[in-house]
């Protein structure tokens, strides 16, 4: 990876229709900047985890995350839940 070149991924999970979260968006460089900007515009919490993004960036859009990432992604969703709770106060 080129130093300073960002990577970003957006996850989506609808427990009524999906068995696991999917990759909603993924990219690096300007695309990563656009993903991050869109999240900021929509008050979506952002978690920086360089190890996790390296793995998520290898997945395709609309691909279900592999089972071995469930724990890491569950921690991401827990972070988002806590951030949402903090914003509502």
TrEMBL record:
InterPro entries reported for this sequence: T3SS_substrate_exporter (IPR006135), T3SS_substrate_exporter_C (IPR029025)
UniProt keyword terms in alphabetical order: Cell projection, Cilium, Flagellum
Protein name as catalogued: Flagellar biosynthesis protein
